[in-house]
Fold Anti-anti-sigma factor.
Amino acid sequence: MTTPLTMAASRRPDGTQVLTVTGEIDMSNAGTFDAALTRAADDGRLVVDLAAVDYLDSAGLTVLFDHAPHIELVANPLIAPVLSISGLVDVTTVHGLDSGPDGDGRP
């Protein structure tokens, strides 16, 4: 059974590609998540907004590590500790580990 996951690609006025992810990222949908990151990152640097992600397992972390050289992440308080403990914060930029300059932790 695949767990609920939705992804929406958009582009900021400055041209930055953003992939907004909502739901749960686990082994049942990690392949779909990986494919979406690959497509979205083809244009260069990608911000992956995980602010609405409720669950992230090791399969999802593996996908994020695989794409780390080309992505920046926006975390929420629920998954920020997972990103820190896993070491992902050491290989890519993660916003939302604190409140950020405008209070929402977003770049």
Residues 30-41 form the longest helix (12 residues). The helical segments are 30-41, 58-67, 80-86.
